[in-house]
Amino acid sequence: MNASDAVREGLIPLLPRLRRLARALAGQVADADDLVQIVLERALARAAQWRPDAALDKWVFAIARNAWRDELRARGRTQHLFAPEEAGEMAADRASAQPAQQLELAMALAALPPDHREVVALVLVEGMSYGEAAELLEVPVGTVTSRLARARATLQAHLGKDA
Question: For residue 115, what is the domain's CATH number?
Fold first, then answer.
């Protein structure tokens, strides 16, 4: 099996995780769907660049991260994104959280700076280790730890201020 076939077959089971990551990065369902499409197109077009000894999920997530940054630059966006209620779907189980709580969490996540939202998406949503996230983001582990600590503090402050 060549690299292109391996990538094509490996992308299918990665789709749910890729979609969760895209929603966490983009904050909006439509933007996340567009991002997933861009990532799939790039991964398939560049399948020959993937090394079979490398983890496919990390390679695809790096493509997603870079594609989202390209999109933000193209739009001229800053750190402020607005999230619709649907963005809460990726952050909490609908059966266990009330819609108002989902919206509140989605708004808190959307208010995070993009670099903090990336770390939350990779470590807390996707379950990567700090080391794996650091490798993917090309930053030291201490940077991941610091960003995650600041993101958690910001989320706690935002979510706890009305309590």
Answer: 1.20.140.160
pLDDT tens, position by position, 8-53: 999 999 999 999 999 988 888 889 999 999 999 999 999 999 988 8
Closest alpha carbon to 88 in 69, 68, 109: 109
3-state DSSP percent of the chain in helix, strand and coil, to 5: 75, 0, 25
For residue 115, count other CB atoms closer than 10 A to its CB. 15
Locate tokens 């089971």: which residue?
13
How many distinct structural domains can be found in the chain?
A: 1
Length of the chain counted residue by residue: 163
pLDDT digits (tens, 9 = 90+) for 125-138: 888 899 999 998 88
Q: Give the range of the structural domain holding residue 34, as residue numbers without chain letter.
A: 3-160
The burial of 35, by beta-carbon neighbours within 10 Å (0-12 exposed, 13-18 middle, 19 or more buried), is given as buried
Global pTM value: 0.62
The span from the first CA to the last CA of the chain, in angstroms, equals 56
- Amino acid 103 reads L
